[in-house]
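Obj: model holo form, ligand = magnesium ion.
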Amino acid sequence: MIERSLVLVKPDAMERGLSGEIVKRIEEAGMTLIGIKMLHMDMALAERHYAPHREKPFFKSLTSYISSAPIVAAVFEGEGAVERIRKLMGTTDPAKAAEGTIRGDLGIDIEHNSVHGSDSVETAKNEIDLFFKKDELFIY
Ligand code: UDP
Ligand code: MG
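Output (holo structure tokens):
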């Protein structure tokens, strides 16, 4: 199935100039970049994007962190894009993520783990709509 996934380059990676590296790894895995922008998320967008985590103890810290600095948001399309990108990212905690994964190689700690990727096709649809208008996505 051709799927779409929303990817965010988080502030810890932006700070270290790693946005290109992260986009490159996903492109090299055969995913097609169909939308990209830089933005500074406000608290309202952070709370909507991470709404499924509202009750978690880390919610306040996470939403403050993700809205602390400009980020890159991107949409990738490709065969099995959701799972493919989750595999490239590695597990949530960089200390446990495999070598060769984005988080394993670049992540700092469980919060500052460099990258977000949608966890299902349904989530991806909602997340993409939060960040991109229809005419900001390109089909070719
Ligand atoms: N997170 C955190 N503490 C935790 C678990 C997660 O700060 O104990 C942050 C981390 O940045 C993670 C995000 O919350 O990427 C969303 O958590 P989720 O469990 O959805 O992980 P993901 O899907 O990003 O791997
Ligand atoms: Mg998640």
